[in-house]
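TICKET: design request
STATUS: open
ATTACHED STRUCTURE:
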């Protein structure tokens, strides 16, 4: 059997970990189970990532990057500020509806990281990254439209993400499509009023 470099194996292991943990939960994500999911030796996981926490960090980063990429692709390049914010929020919500397992896994990993000293920095980095991307999208939308923000983009992003995270948790726990549509519209209106 041909040797596969760690650089090639890394994305394969991340995908195997995401597939396994999205199906069975973070508790099922042992290095042994992830190795079995991909059909490699457990030592391959340790060689590629060092620790299970490093693999979990990579999973969080990959899930986040995948979601951010989807939302960034939806960003209009010539719309008014308000229309851009609506489009971005709806695109992000669309990812929740289409990929609830990804959000559930991110939530589980976040809770796990709060109690795992080696992952607390990864969790903070994850949230800083999401905050920075959201603030960047808000700033860019305002700049393109010539809109002067009433609050710093980071404050608006933090407000939006707090509401969005709550709405996502409600969707995962007790879905109600009509109520969610109303709440999302209200959140968008509040963000626009704040901006």
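STATUS: resolved
RESOLUTION: sequence designed for all positions
ATTACHED SEQUENCE:
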């Amino acid at each position: 059997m041909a040797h596969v470099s760690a650089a090639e194996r890394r994305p394969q292991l991340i995908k195997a970990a995401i597939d396994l943990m999205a199906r069975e939960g973070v508790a099922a994500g042992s290095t042994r189970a992830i190795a079995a999911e991909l059909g490699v030796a457990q030592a391959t996981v340790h060689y590629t990532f060092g620790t299970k926490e490093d693999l979990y960090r990579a999973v969080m980063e990959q899930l986040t990057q995948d979601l951010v990429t989807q939302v960034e692709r939806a960003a209009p390049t010539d719309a008014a500020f308000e229309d851009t914010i609506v489009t971005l929020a709806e695109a992000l919500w669309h990812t929740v509806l289409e990929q609830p397992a990804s959000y559930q896994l991110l939530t589980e990993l976040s809770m796990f990281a709060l109690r795992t000293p080696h992952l607390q920095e990864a969790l903070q980095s994850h949230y800083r990254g999401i905050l920075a991307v959201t603030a960047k999208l808000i700033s860019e939308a305002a700049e393109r439209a010539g809109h002067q923000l009433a609050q710093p983009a980071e404050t608006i992003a933090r407000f939006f993400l707090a509401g969005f995270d709550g709405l996502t948790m409600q969707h995962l726990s007790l879905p109600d499509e009509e109520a969610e549509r109303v709440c999302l519209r209200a959140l968008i209106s509040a963000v626009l009023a704040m901006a």
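CLOSING REMARK: The chain has a mean pLDDT of 93. Residues 35 and 42 are 5 Å apart (CA to CA).
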